[in-house]
Amino acid sequence: MLLPSISIPELVLRTALVYLTFIVILRLTGKRELGQFTIFDLALLLLATNALQPAMTGPDNSVGGGLVILVTIFALNGLVAAARRRLRAVRRLFESDPTVLARDGVWDQAAIDREGLDDEDLGAALRSHGVEKIEEARLVVLEEDGSISVVPKSDGSQAPRRRRWRGRRPNQG
Predict the structure, then answer these.
(1) At what angle do helices 63-86 and 8-28 cross, to 10 degrees?
(2) Could you tell me the fold of the domain covering 99-162?
(3) Which of the ends of the chain has fewer CB neighbours closer than 10 A, N or C?
(4) Could you state, in order of their start, the residue ranges of all structural domains in the chain?
(5) Sign, Cα dihedral of 54, 58, 64, 68
(6) Cβ neighbourhood burial of 133 (10 Å; 0-12, 13-18, 19+)
(7) Percent of the chain whose pLDDT exceeds 70
């Protein structure tokens, strides 16, 4: 019950492979933040983690094996976070570039389609920044963290505002 039935190095390797693959898949699915998850995204995440669990544990179901996996996941997460902060190449690997969605009061429909956003998402983002219609915005950007920034048109007296937009996240496509 307490001791793993497979070797600790094998548990660590299995966990590292699953962790890194999961991170790559999350990176490839686009810009989003946890606050923008829909119920469908939550179901996907829970089912994916449940499906991946046997790949990490193999035939082991011991408490000790579970603790090895838990420590490995936290250690990998800390290493990736530190590498992302220190190394530009790692940061580029794990972060996407911001996407301009509108400029000078005109939507960029190709960018909107590419990011899987719809009119309701965009309208909610504008309103959350105090902008009623796109013609009032100088710049609208989907940031690398999934938030939407809006720079309103003004006479220069109003500073650009960036708020966390917690609407629905972009669709999986």
Answers:
(1) 50
(2) CRO Repressor (3.30.240)
(3) N
(4) 8-94, 99-162
(5) negative
(6) exposed
(7) 84
